[in-house]
Amino acid sequence: MKVLFTHSYFLKFDAKQFQTAMPYPPLGTLYAMSYLREHGYEVKLFDSMFCNSAKDIRSTIDEFKPDIFISYDDGFNYLTKMCLTNMREACFDMQVYAKSKGCKVIVSSSDATDHLEDYLKHGADAVVIGEAEQTVLELCNVFKGNIAFDSISGIAFSNNNEILKTNSRTVLKDLDVLPPPAWDLLDIAPYKKMWIDNHGYFSLNFVTTRGCPYKCNWCAKPIYGNRYNSHSPENIVLEIKKWQQQFGFTHIWFADDIFGLKPNWLKDFEYHIKKENVKVNYKIQSRADLLLEEDNIKHLANSGCNMVWMGAESGSQRILDAMDKGTKVEQIYEATRLLKKHNIHVSLFLQLGYLEETIDDIKLTVKMVEELLPDDIGISVSYPLPGTVFYDKVKEELKGKSNWTDSDDLDMMFKNTYKPEFYKQLQRYIHRRYRKQIGYESAKKLFSQPTGLNLKNTLSLIKIIPQEFLEKLKLKQIEPDATAKF
């Protein structure tokens, strides 16, 4: 039987990400393709990343004539976890067409897990819930034999207009039993071209783990859950070495929710990186409380880590506690200090608008950013996703809109302390204020440490100062009382 894989992320449907021009291949999809191929299926990928329309897939379906169509989103990429409506509509279009051509249709994604009825109404024979490789294989096997699939764990399907769910599937513990991603079935050229044309280097994505054991009450984990299982450091390094020789990337984004949590994993990773003489820089995601051991920071630095995106979220301890974050503000400060000491760039994820956040909490976040001066910041607003404590608290208010259209939507979809437009404007203002502070610090260093970067940041003040002033005026017009002393 022939199986056509695709995914529902279209870069051109997400204007902010298209402009950022940092595309990463659908890694989760490539893992599933490799697993199915290893079990004897003929698999093909239609990569929607650079397509103009969901209709672009139709000629591939017509020519390849697959027996089974699988829309399998990359569960490692935070963009797919956001369940954007632009991508949902594109997926519906693709699976409806596949169904009209006689294909059996399987869907695996965070969004499909959250909206089972919608996906089943648009032609899906089964929606996979949870870790999907084994489930997809079993589904294909029963489709091949044209027998019932209601005994397969980890799926939802429709029977006489009733949605039925089977038992949950046990997650894989030894990830090294999985075959490596099917990189050979991906056209890497457009990814490499966009990276080099826009940034001068090529970055590729890998993962070393699945899941996250922490329980921040706004974080949804519909695919890999709260478990934490990992590949061996040796396995990962050998994969990096193999594909670096073929693709020529010089940078990696490790898309793990949490990188290097297992004891001694970072130490062993550094050992194998050096043993195999692999030269690569990489960025990771982590938490402040995991970045307080200086030996671990050294292992990161020595193995090529040059950037850590830290889930700081807020400079207010009251808000961190309300989120069940499990970290302290002072840990954010200490982790930043240690990373900078070892020449690792620090970037902070910040979240505005959590329940009952006030202007005083916001001011603490701004204060933290200005005191730490990270190398970059990423600002979002609280986004309720099904399966979270946070979602349960606000779900009655989500009747008008429950998902963003694209990653720059930033709509506050529930009632909070201030107006929704205030939070959209606030993130713009904080970005300008942060850039202004970077410019001031560069100006101070210009004479003692003259560098091209310091000069560039200093000159940027000419543009940033009036921009910041205008953003602040807009903010005050929306919420004059709240921002009176901001």
Could you please say which CATH topology of the largest domain applies here? TIM Barrel
Give the amount of beta strand, in percent.
Answer: 5-15%
Q: Give, in spatial order, the strands making up the sheet with the most strands.
A: 2-1-3-4-5-6-7
Main sheet?
Answer: 7 strands, mixed
- Under CATH, the homologous superfamily of the largest domain reads Aldolase class I
Counting H and I runs of at least 4 residues, what is the number of helices?
A: 19
Mean pLDDT: 96
Overall form: globular
Gyration radius from CA atoms, angstroms: 23 Å
| Structural class computed from helices and strand pairing | alpha/beta
Runs in which pLDDT lies below 50 for 5 or more consecutive residues are: none
Query: Span between N and C termini?
Result: 63 Å
The total number of structural domains is 2
Bin the helical content.
40-55%
Oligomeric form of this entry? single chain
Written description of the protein model:
The protein is an alpha/beta fold and 486 residues long. The model has no long low-confidence stretch (mean pLDDT 96). The protein has 2 domains: 2-165, Cobalamin-binding domain (Rossmann fold); 201-417, TIM Barrel, CATH 3.20.20. Helix 11 (265-275) links the parallel strand 11 and strand 12. Helix 17 (420-445) packs across helix 18 (452-459) and helix 17 (420-445) runs antiparallel to helix 19. The chain is 43% helix and 15% strand. It has a 7-stranded mixed sheet, with helices on both faces.
